[in-house]
């Protein structure tokens, strides 16, 4: 079987390589076959796996990080480690000991510091090395430190910010700022795409018709927060007069509104049936 190459030049014809490639009798081409005719161009930030937007990322449920426990967490291919000290505070550091690269996820919490399994170097929540046993009370070198990351606990999760300090906590749902909330966890799922693609899915009325066969005309209102970190979208439209639509009209009225609050390009807060009351 011949391996085929494609040219992007007008009028060019395909050519066959002298080298034959086969797999169980089936021909295949290089994974970059269309690289010249259909190049993938990642956005400067959107959909770009090489860029970590400064924002809050859900690391694990709060109950999974009990006092004195250690848990690994991966953010855009970078391995971090979470631990909870005796004071109950969650902390996050780079996962590998600067001494010999031991994974600190197999380490031990000592007080409010994390001790490496291998040579018992200990690191505080700010990433500074606070003890090297063989130094016998001597000073620890500055280079024996780790990057640290801000943490926040909200909605039942431990969140991590990709820098040592964060400008603000995790965003609130619109209209529920400062309120005590009751929350429950749904089943998590994986999608083989960048999370930015998942986020814009909630703002795409067109795909409701093309993908889900739901034909609803919606108006979109957009408001950007003064801090530049939050964008609020409200989608509103009339409920169609179909059989399912009439049943929905009986419950919530003739119109449907839902809101989506996006924060930092990595958190989406969805409010369904916005401004409506069942039976009213």
Q: What integer is the average pLDDT?
A: 81
Sheet with the most strands?
Answer: 4 strands, antiparallel
What's the multimeric state?
single chain
Q: How many separate helices? A: 3
Total number of strands:
17
Sequence stretches where pLDDT stays below 50 over 5 or more residues: 1-23
Q: What's the end-to-end separation, in Å? A: 68 Å
Approximate helicity band: under 10%
Helix vs. strand class: mainly beta
Q: What percentage of the residues does DSSP assign to strands (E)?
A: 25-35%
Mass-distribution shape: elongated
Along the chain, the helix and strand elements come as EEEEEEEEEEEEEHHEEHEE
Strands ordered across the widest β-sheet: 4-5-6-11
Q: Provide the gyration radius in Å.
A: 26 Å
Helix and strand topology:
Layout: E1 2-5, E2 15-20, E3 57-61, E4 70-75, E5 78-84, E6 90-94, E7 108-110, E8 113-115, E9 122-123, E10 129-131, E11 148-149, E12 151-154, E13 157-160, H1 195-201, H2 205-210, E14 218-224, E15 230-238, H3 243-252, E16 255-263, E17 267-271
Antiparallel strand pairs: 1-2, 3-13, 4-5, 5-6, 6-11, 7-8, 8-9, 9-10, 12-13, 14-15, 15-16, 16-17
